[in-house]
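FAQ: What does the model actually see?

It sees only this:
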Amino acid sequence: MTVSFSFLGLPDRLADGRVPRAVIFGAGHGTTYPGQDSSGYALAAGAVRAASQDDAPLLGHWDFDLGGPLFDGGPVCCIDSGDLSTTMHDNAGNRTRIEAKTREVLSVPAVPIMLGGDDSVVIPFLAGFAGYGPIWILQIDAHIDWRDEVHGEHYGYSSPMRRASEMAHVAGMVQVGLRSVGSARPAEIEAARRYGSRFVTAREVHAHGVEAALQHIPEGARVVVTFDCDSLDPSIMPGVAARTPCGLTYAQAIDLIAGLGRRARIAGFDLVELYPPADIDSLSALTAARLLVNVIGAVVRQTG
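And it is asked to produce this:
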């Protein structure tokens, strides 16, 4: 897929040979279920990049979300390497490419930031951290994604946390933003609890703040954040396939990211399940772009 512009106008390499702190890449397709069409999700990375363009000339300006300029007074230290070449229904090939790209970024070493794609791209992204663990997972999502298989497929968008639980380098997970039916059958809830996953509902965050989730993350842990756009309330994130009332607010989402950056270490981030055909006036893409700015800001401000 050709990218006509990058996120925030970032370069694809740092001209002075410096090692980037973070590398953005897109992955439009992962493991698509038989008979389904994931092409709408493949538009997400481009939509987020387009929504970021108004802020591209303002990188040196004060960002009130971050308490200072994006790069904290330093030079640009994040790059956008464009999109992987993925093909709908080339499920095994897509997984191989996503995992390989994740490993490539980690070897730099840099923090990989992946723009999906539906939630199936998360499985190979997390698999790419093998040898770079242990990691914790902070899943921000309306759903727990613990299905073992759907239509005979074990690597689709309903199964990423189930597959993550089977990865030896994953030390634990916290799942926050859960609400409504959460796509979970009782057997899946039981399996997740037996594994030791910590559930934090959206209502708990509304009542007690983001500390309700962050308290379960060990201090100093290396954490991969997987951010499903339907974790946010549809009033600010309508461009998703599963709109569900009572979602997290933008402030709660960026407070989770900032709080995680202070408590632990963000080792990777993915943003998935943005569905541009359902968006309204590009509101979802704009919200997603601002979230990514906060992720980059948190990574830049990490020490060590």
